[in-house]
Amino acid sequence: MEDNKIALDVKDLRIRYKCLNMFxxxxxxxxxxxANEIVFEAVRGVSFSVKKGEILGIVGKNGSGKxxxxxxxxxxxxxxxxxxxxxxxxxxxxxxxxxxxxxLTGRENIVLSGMLLGFSEEQVRAxxxxxxxxxxxxxxxxxxxxxxxxxxxxxxxFSITAILESDIMLIDEVLSVGxxxxxxKSYNKMKELISDNNRTVVIVSHVSETLQELCTxxxxxxxxxxxxxxxxxxxxxxxxxFMS
Amino acid sequence: xMTRFINDMKKYFSYAKYxxxxxxxxxxxxxxxxxxxxxLDPLLFMMVYTFIAVIVFRSKIEYxxxxxxxxxxxxxxxxxxxxxxxxxxRQNSSIVSKVYIPKYILILQKMLENxxxxxxxxxxxxxxxxxxRVPVTxxxxxxxxxxxxxxxxxxxxxxxxxxxxxFVDDLHNVMMVxxxxxxYLSGIFYSIGDRLEEPFRSLLLYCNPMxxxxxxxxxxxxxxxxxxxxxxxVWGLISFILCTIGIRLIYSYENSYVxxx
Lengths: 244, 261
Hints:
- The complex is a heterodimer of chains A (244) and B (261).
- With 244 residues, chain A is α/β, with parallel strands linked by helices.
- Chain A has helices spanning 25-30, 66-73, 106-116, 121-135, 150-163, 180-195, 208-214, 232-243, and strands at 6-18, 39-51, 55-59, 81-85, 91-95, 168-172, 200-204, 217-222, 225-230.
- In chain A, helix 6 links the parallel strand 6 (168-172) and strand 7.
- Chain B is 80% helix and 0% strand.
- Chain B is built from twelve helices and no strands.
- In chain B, helix 6 (104-131) runs antiparallel to helix 7.
- Chain B is globular, with a radius of gyration of 19 Å.
- The interface between A and B is medium-sized, with 36 and 32 residues.
């Protein structure tokens, strides 16, 4: 690849959850001792960078900080320490069930989600037909989202983020969306999106085969720290060994 | 902070507008009678308060139903927004945990919705004023600055309440009591000016922004007098400061909201 521009820079990232019980006025009247604050550090000093066009897979057992890190990359969390530099790229988090307003129709939710991802109403409307066609919801597209089955819900969510393209895509276990037909289709769409040399992708998944096939690099997170980072051939066998 | 606020407003205002519009639309679509409730709700409450005030307490206020209606219109806007913002972040957790959005945009969206309903309510006030043959002068123009102060005040307080609502579990109950008390102290179905003696009269009229705003609106719409312009300016300034505090609070803490939920 000719341009080696870095799309994403993470330096010594630390994210903490304060397991503070929610303050309650009623409780504070009846208890006199101060609630002891438990701080849990989900991501502990992770540094890496992703080049433009690269596809980074993240593996790790449950609770190893994968999703937390994706959310931080998407700008939902701020880093407690360290920094995340997106170099001005637009970023979207593709995860099961993007925030939908339950009472609104699918069509309206497409516009709203698109606008939340930083697109203008016209831009979303221009892509509307494509999204609807891809989501295969039929007449449900004009029904309130609360009437959707969970499969339809995730199909719509996937279609919105897949078709409204951003520079950096963060994917959280989304390859298992819908029935087997849609799964195949979304998998192909994913591959098509990923094969675009301008797009940078970060995928979190538990399925080694997917990562093996899609990723150019794999990072293994363990208890919030990088255990290993390298090509899929290097990392995945060791990870499999560790998990079994 | 100011530039960030302006940039974010430019970026997300269209979202708030679209979201408010589709919310209103879905409210109408889910039942044909729903939009009727936007009208019926204040109308019925007006009848209740008119009954109590005129029959039970023998109030002798001129144009009493319109008088109550104006009070309710302003109060409902304020009350719904402030009360709604307590649980705003939790109710929108599906959005908040998936994508970054300045959290006051959620308030703005609700304010646009409630503002639309307030305008309908004001339309009814207009109709009632015609029916009661209320004389109107140019002083009715003062309604505009009053509404500006009301919007600023509501936005500022809502931002602050939204912030604390995330961290304080039972703020909902507390706010309910406070707002109910404020409701009775705002002179919605009685006239503070006529009913109370000094020092309570000035205290309630000038230190409670809602009663001040309601009284001003009535003065310039119904009784062709001038509103308390100095107090209006003072409360406009205070509201502006509240907005700044609220926005600053949200900007510095909004990233930790998701972690608490």
